[in-house]
Amino acid sequence: MEIDTPTDSGATSSGPGSVSVRLHPLVVLNISEHWTRYKVRENSPGVIVYGALLGTQEGHHVEISNSFELLLDDPHFSVNAEFYSTRESQCKQVYPDLDIVGWYATGGPITEKDELLNRCKN
Predict the structure, then answer these.
(1) Which Gene3D superfamilies does the protein's record reference (predicted)?
(2) How far is CA 41 from the centre of its chain?
(3) Phi, psi dihedral angles at 113 (to 5 degrees)
């Protein structure tokens, strides 16, 4: 019988160029609540929601601690700058040590819209 050796955390590293990520459970709950709220409101099976990820990055270690939803302006598929700015400043007041470290999208594979969001300057 073989027993796997336990690791010290859920994050793994496979080499010098790798990145370790620690995802706090609150982020999973926030994203789930965000998606559920839109799913109920839209009553559509293909609901996709987008949001910002807050955390810290030190070298190749990223810790994602919180998140907030993003409002997108259709048809240009750009982030609503006013909403984003307000939410970012609110988060900075409560969590001064956290920065935007990325974004999330629910749904299937990455789409052209997701690529546009990734390039968004707002």
Answers:
(1) Cytidine Deaminase, domain 2
(2) 21
(3) -60, -40
- Nearest C-alpha neighbor of 32 from the set 17, 13, 19, 51: 51
> At 56, which helix (H) or strand (E)?
strand 50-58
Q: What is the largest CA-CA distance in the chain?
A: 59
Helical (H) or strand (E) element with 37: helix 25-42
d(Cα 29, Cα 32) in Å, to the nearest integer? 5
Nearest to 70 by CA among 109, 29, 111, 100: 100
Residue type, 50: Y
Model confidence pTM above 0.70: yes
pLDDT in tens, 5-26: 545 555 555 567 788 999 999 9
Domains identified in the chain and CATH numbers = 20-119 (3.40.140.10)
